[in-house]
Amino acid sequence: MSTLTLKVLFTIGFLSSFVIRIPHQRENRNNKIARDRKTTQEMILLLLVFIGMVMLPWLYVVSPVLNFADYSLPIWANCLGVITFALALWLFWRSHYDLGKNWSPTLEIRENHTLISKGVYQTIRHPMYASVWLWCVAQALLLPNWIAGLAGIASFGIMYLLRIGNEEQMMLEQFGDEYKMYMQRSRR
Ligand code: SAH
Hints:
- The protein is mainly α.
- It has a single domain, classed as Four Helix Bundle (Hemerythrin (Met), subunit A).
- Helix content is 66%, strand content 4%.
- The chain has six helices and two strands.
- It has a two-stranded antiparallel ribbon.
- It is elongated, with a radius of gyration of 17 Å.
- The two termini are 34 Å apart.
- It binds S-adenosyl-L-homocysteine.
- S-adenosyl-L-homocysteine (SAH) binds at residues 95, 99, 102-104, 107-109, 115-116, 121, 126-129, 167, 171.
């Protein structure tokens, strides 16, 4: 596929993720925070992911400055990227839907927070992060560039490794045995 086609496909997927998230962001605006785990580490990780999954891909889409680091991929790999992106968006939508008012962009417990263990949360403990992993793979397959393409995997990989333990610890403190049992019957 041509670079332009790939950039257009990436842009469509990127904008779709905003459309999916906007209603949840609106809904959550009035949903008060009961416990906040927004540490300096968490803020740095969010900035890192913003650079890797928003800034660098967009720099590649709108300007030629990163073109020196391009690689080429066969068409089947691009097609795999489209399929992976579609799957990522579906899982992103579905996990927002299942999490409902309990969703937060960072580590927080909301007032009246409930533990969700149904829908896509039944067997996967972190389906939203699973959708971001799929997105990162799609980013590498749709933006054939060593910097813009791989920045997603690198930045989210670091965030995932450093956040996941803290998030599960926060959930254990909030829900105790209920979360412990959920951990036993689900997988990360
Ligand atoms: N890690 C989850 C959720 C990401 S959103 C996923 O990948 O799908 C992050 C927020 O979701 C956290 O701050 C936490 O408050 C909340 N959360 C995580 N798992 C949850 C669950 N099973 N039920 C309810 N809230 C959850």
